[in-house]
Amino acid sequence: MAERRMIRKDLCENDAFNDLTMPAQILYMMLILHGDDEGCFRADAKYWSRTVFYTKRQGPFRVERMLDELREARLIITGETKNGPAGFILGWFNMQTLTASKSKPSQFYELLVAHGITPCWGIPAEENVRKEKQSEVNEGGVRSNSPSRFREVAGKHRDEKIARLQAEKKAVMEGMSMGAISTPNDFDEISEYAENDVREDT
Predict the structure, then answer these.
(1) In the list 40, 70, 81, 83, which could disulfide-bond 106, CB 3.0-4.6 Å?
(2) Exposed (0-12), middle (13-18) or buried (19+): which is 4, by Cβ within 10 Å?
(3) How far apart are CA 124 and CA 75, in angstroms?
(4) pTM for the whole thing?
């Protein structure tokens, strides 16, 4: 997993962020630092009360209220997965630039799928090993290494990335309609990211 995370400087100009309480702002920053390569994180109030605040004053109940603030501001979405409660930071790939060689699938990929977002880095190997083996074998039961096969796989990967970016753009638009996102260039940057991403794959 990549060790560096980026935060856009215009976040401080975002009304949704500025309207948060100070503890909620701190929690949001920590979620960005601790998020996995897909922008997902554990939505466990008890875990974050120990990881971030280290004091009884900011106990699980108060941290849960902070998570509610972030949800209402449309900065995160949360849900249940088989690995426990999870969250996703909206606009994650609008802030982060990650490479496939250093990125890993999220254990909370089910949350992304439930909200119509295609996981950028696929799903964990233990979940996908059977499908990967099937994709490596052609209809006659023989592994295919032909250039046409590679182009087919690359094209499918590119289409999945575009679909994921479009789903995230839709989520950003929903946040913008509620006043959570005030930056007018968000859509253009997402489109630019998609175009650059496709060029790198071809």
Answers:
(1) 40
(2) exposed
(3) 25
(4) 0.60
> Does residue 28 come out as left (phi exceeding 0), alpha (psi in the -120 to 50 range) or beta?
alpha
Give the bridge partners for 33, in sequence order. none
CA max distance for the chain = 64
- Which residues lie closer than 8 Å to 132 by C-beta, 6 or more apart? 125
Residue 56 phi, psi (nearest 5) = -70, -25
Q: Counting beta carbons within 10 angstroms of the beta carbon of residue 166, is it exposed (0 to 12), middle (13 to 18) or buried (19 or more)?
A: middle
Which DSSP category does 180 fall into? S
Residue 18 CA neighbour count, 13 Å, CB half: 10
Tokens of 183: 């930056």
- DSSP calls for 109-147: HHHHHHTT---TT-S-HHHHHHHHHHHTB-TTS-B---H
Which amino acid belongs to residue 20?
L
Say how many C-beta atoms besides its own lie within 10 A of residue 149's C-beta: 14
